[in-house]
Write a structure and sequence with these properties.
double-stranded DNA 3'-5' DNA exonuclease activity, Deoxyribonuclease I, Chain A, alpha+beta, 14 strands, 7 helices, 6-stranded mixed sheet
Length: about 260
Amino acid sequence: MKIATYNVNGIKARLPRLLEWLDETKPDVVCLQELKSSDETFPESDVRGAGYGAIWHGQKGFNGVAILARGADPVEVRRGLDGEPEDEHSRYVEADVFGVRVASIYLPNGNPQPGPKFDYKLRWMRRLQQRAQEILAEEVPAVLAGDYNVIPTDEDVFSVQAMANDALMQPESRAEFRTLCFQGWTDAIRTRHPVGPIWTFWDYQAGAWQRDAGFRIDHLLLSPQAADRLVDANVDKSYRGREKASDHAATWIVLND
């Protein structure tokens, strides 16, 4: 089973690239982030035409997450996280798909920091930890996939100095990510690629793609029951270089049956 996470940076603007990628790589499950689409304007007919059922949690203009399943309809378990009833951001959706619990996550960016946006990021991460602990307690194969907006270590960025003041790699952001992992989640990409650069994001600015000045912020965290089934993990880097591509590349795992 191939499970991918893909921040599409606007599903309507990137729809040709998304459909192209689905057709060429044929993942079984896809977690999408940054739809920038309301629930009403999500391109369901196009997605179904590509052979995928879907659930989504949209928001006009920004945020938004979805889960796609090839030849099936994901069974929704939850949308949104507990802890802040006033939080209207569409950043989390969870479903059961092909016997695996899958969550699509679009974690807050947190910039500028310090400030209220960074505080919100850290609170959101703690709310995610709470839900993740509940999932672990169910002892099911589970994958928390998405754009975490966290650069976990210095090895996950092209230049530590360039990103030193960014919310994505502040000590507090990294500490909350480690706390999540230490619950018992496995970082799939680093399991298969333990050393060296393996980027998932390249900014549109300053020729970042051409210079390969990227970093790793798209992660798939596996419960013990899923980690035992891990066969492979990688990034579809070449798709980032296509015309009108997202600034992220799809990141994926393969689990055996």
